[in-house]
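If you are new to this repository, start here. Below is one unmodified record pulled from the training split, so you can see the exact layout before writing a loader.
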Amino acid sequence: MARGTLPAPGAQYGPCPEPCGHVDCAESRRMAAEACVFCGRVIGYDTPLYNMSPGLAHALCAENAAAATPKEPKP
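And here is the target side for that same chain:
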């Protein structure tokens, strides 16, 4: 699973700074407004994230959850 970020509106590769009809811009805005599957806060822009399928998670939230998950003992 790869970490990614959503560039802010107006930034290089980010959505247009003004409302527009571009499909990619609309998808970036939708993703940025989505709630993190762990903490419930919006994902936002310029924040590392993971696609946890079926939702998005802040990278920090996902990494903290993974670190807190008990590991099964090795046989």
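Two things worth knowing about this chain: The helical segments are 23-33, 59-68. DSSP finds two helices and two strands in the chain.
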